[in-house]
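Researcher: Sit down with what I've pasted below and flag anything odd:
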Amino acid sequence: MVFVWYIHNKTIEENFLICHPLKTTTKASVVLKLVDDFFTAENLDWNKLGSVCSDGAPAMLEVRSGFLTLVKQKNPKIIGTHCIIHQEALASRTMSQPLKQALDCAAKVVNYVKASALNTRLFQKLCQEMDAEYDSLLFHTSVRWLSKGNILIRLARLLPEVIEFLKIQHKQGLKTDIADVMFQNRLAFLGEIFSHLNELNRNLQGVAASILGLRDKIAAFIAQLILWKTKIQSGQRVAVFPMMNKMNETNGINSIVQSEVVDYFNSLIEEFHRYFPGVEHDTPMLALNKEPFQRFC
C-alpha cells in the first residue's frame, strides 16, 4: 500500500496511490518495479517526487539495494525518512524478562480459553453465571498489535472467572501461575501501559498530522513517562494506572514488581530518546516555525 501527499487546489491532500499485492517475493526490486510500472502507466514523473517515507524494514532502507536506494537512482534529490509511527512502535518493544514472562503467561491462558469453540462457550456460560462484566476474552495477533493492551486489561478484569474456569478444567499449572500476586500486579501494569502506548500511536495518525505536532506529542509522552516513573519510585499512586493501584491495594505493593516497573520506565525512556534524539529540545528553526512572529536575539 502506498499513500501519497500532494498539492491540489492550493491544499495538501492525502490518498491511496497504489494498493497491489506482492504475489511472489517482497524484495525492494519487486516493490520498485510495481511502483515504476504504475508511474509509467499513469504518466507520473519521478522527478516530481519530493520524499519517500517508509518503515524500517531492510527491504525499504537497506543501504545498497533497499527500496529508497533504488528510488534515488530514479531521482537523487528525493529525501528519505523513517515513519514516526513505526519508530514509536519499535521504541515500545522494550521489556524486561519478568514482564515478558507475565505477558507470555497471559497469552497462554487466553489461547487455552479461546483455543476451541467448546472452551469459549463454557467460559461464556461461567462468566454469565458469575455476573462478570464481560463474557469472553480477546485474541491478540501480530497484525492487530494495537489490541495487546485491550487483551491484557480484559484478562485482568476477568481474573476470578478465568481462575475458576482453569480450576474446573483441571489446568492447575496455569491456574497457579495467574493466581500469583506478582503476576496479577504485572498484568495490571502491562495492560495499562500498553493502553497508553496505543493511545500515543493513534494520536500520531491522521490526515492533519504535521512533524511539529508529532514531535510535541512524543516529547509530552516522554515527560509523562518520567513523571510516572518518579511517582512509582517514591511509592505514590499514579491516577492513570487505576487497575494497578487497585491491585496494589488488594495484594499490597510488591517491592520487586515496583522495581521492575521503574526499570521498565527507564528502558522505555532510553528507547524513546534513542529513536527520537533531541525531540524534547527545539532548534531555533523549529521554534520559528511554531512561533513565526517571535523574535530571536
User: Anything to note?
Assistant: The first strand starts at residue 2 and ends at 8. Strands lie at 2-8, 11-18, 51-54, 79-82. The radius of gyration is 24 Å. Residues 139 and 151 are 7 Å apart (CA to CA).
